[in-house]
Amino acid sequence: MRALISAAIGLVAALALVLTITAIGAPPGETSPKPLLTTVPDHP
């Protein structure tokens, strides 16, 4: 029974954290227009 209560408390805490972050919103700023390179380009 204690495990069930602990799981419920953890779930509520995680949900509260997600809702708080959602309410605050994304931080201001803009993304870079340049794409990120995932591989090294070939240089002959």
Describe this structure in words.
With 44 residues, the chain is an all-alpha fold. It is 52% helix and 0% strand. The chain is built from one helix and no strands. The chain is elongated.
In short:
The chain is an all-alpha fold and 44 residues long. Helix content is 52%, strand content 0%. The chain is built from 1 helix and no strands.
Question: Which residues sit in consecutive blocks of at least 5 with pLDDT less than 50?
Answer: none
The Cα radius of gyration reads 21 Å
How many H/I helices? Answer: 1
So what's the overall shape?
elongated
Give the biggest sheet.
Answer: none
- The portion of residues assigned to helices is 40-55%
Give me the count of strands: 0
Distance N to C terminus: 66 Å
Mean pLDDT: 85
Instruction: Give the H and E element order.
Output: H
Protein name: SPW_0924 family protein
Organism: Streptomyces solicavernae
Helix and strand arrangement:
Elements: H1 2-24
Organism: Streptomyces solicavernae
Protein name: SPW_0924 family protein
Features:
44 residues, 1 helix, mainly alpha, single chain
